[in-house]
Amino acid sequence: MTIDIHTLPESERGTCPTELGFGNHFSDHLFTQRYDEGKGWHDAAIKPFHNLTLHPAASVLHYGQEIFEGLKAYRRADGGVNLFRPEQNALRFNRSAQRMVMPEVDISFHVEAIRQLVEIDDSWVPNQEGASLYIRPAMIATTPRLGLGAATSYLHFVMAGPVGPYFKEGFNPVSVYVSDTCRRAVKGGVGEAKTGGNYAASLYMSEQAAAKGFTQVLWLDAVEGRFIEEVGAMNICFVYDNQRIVTPTLTGSILAGITRDSILTLAPTLGYEIVEERLDINTVMNDIGTGKITEVFGCGTAAVISPVGRLCYRDADHTVNNMQAGPVAKRLFDELTAIQYGRGGDSFGWVVEV
Fold first, then answer.
1. What is the pTM of this model?
2. Which residues, other chains included, contact 143 with Cβ-Cβ below 8 Å and sequence gap of 6+?
3. Which of 349, 344, 264, 304 has its CA nearest to residue 86?
4. Is the dihedral of CA 80, 84, 85, 90 positive or negative?
5. What's the CA gap between 232 and 228, in Å, rounded?
């Protein structure tokens, strides 16, 4: 299948703004393709950015049958552009599709569509330090039917937009509130799928935490309410004695992060020990208090690595590393972003040049 391409004339194209937030600017073009049962994927196209038209009974609007992904394009010093592990995002996109009973996409075609979209909108890849082009693939169920059941028609689309740092604090440590009542996801549910319901479920507690002055929420497991899972929309890591990096093992309710996987692969080459295990919140709070835990950080595509300087659990505050970013998080951030932006070697074969 080929991609039908219709681009805007240069005179009608927008420009990448210099003041960047996160997710509030969008580039000039949009990739779309449609799926119909019995026909498969068809009508792949890159066209000028446009609104979508949906029937009011479209399944996505009533039963939440949708998935999405997030990855970035990075401007190199030589002016070129890098994608970071796009095939892994595509594989996870398909795993989410399987869980939500949606059609899978062809991995190579999906990545090529992203590459072509970024190439067409190259001028939207920012040059600023720490900025990038955020890319959002998504799939929604479009069958106009109110009966509950898997849809038979779908829209797959990819949009992009320039972004700055995800958190206004930048690489400075953030404050995290541990939710002791609300839960994000349960094992056996859709926690490991990247679907909107997981994120909608987090908003109630996230808004309460924000009102108390916290940046993110740390989620505990839904069965016993004591095992650490994710922080906000990121995976989380705890550093013991400046050397051992411990992260919750994937249980089916935790998203398998691409950045998490990259850290687990990269860290041992830098001399750090990696441990994946279930982490009891009470043990972790005690280990922060005794100084065994020397750093805490979240990791994900949007923020890459975000140091955590304060955790509040049951109204008790626990400060990590005097609210300072630690050397392990900083080194991992520097090494990972060096690969992404092409400032360092890519011995893992993670980078795809546009």
1. 0.94
2. 58, 59, 151, 152, 153
3. 349
4. negative
5. 12
Give the closest residue to 57 by CA, choosing from 155, 157, 148.
Answer: 148
Strands 66-68 and 132-141, bridge-based pairing: antiparallel
* Per-residue 3-state assignment (H helix, E strand, C coil) for the chain: CCCEECCCCHHHCCCCCCCCCCCCCCCCEEEEEEEECCCEEEEEEEEECCCCCCCCCEHHHHHCCEEECCEEEEECCCCCEEEECHHHHHHHHHHHHHHCCCCCCCHHHHHHHHHHHHHHCHHHCCCCCCCEEEEEEEEEECCECCCCCCCCEEEEEEEEEEECCCCCCCCCCEEEEECCCCCCCCCCCCCCCCCHHHHHHHHHHHHHHHHCCCCEEEEECCCCCCEEEEECCEEEEEEECCCEEEECCCCCCCCCCHHHHHHHHHHHHHCCEEEECCCEHHHHHHHHHHCCEEEEEEEECCCEEEEEEEEEECCEEEECHHHCCCHHHHHHHHHHHHHHCCCCCCCCCCEEEC
DSSP-assigned beta bridge partners for residue 218: 178, 231
Here the tokens at position 90 are 């595509």
Q: Identify the bridge partners of residue 276 per DSSP, sorted by sequence position.
A: 247
Q: Whole-angstrom Cα distance, residue 72 to residue 323?
A: 29
CA–CA dist 179, 212 (Å, integer): 13
pLDDT profile of the chain (354 residues), mean per 10:
94 92 94 98 98 97 97 96 98 97 98 98 94 97 96 98 81 92 90 93 94 95 95 95 96 94 97 97 96 96 93 94 94 96 94 95
- Asked whether 150 and 99 are in contact (CB, 8 A), the reply is no
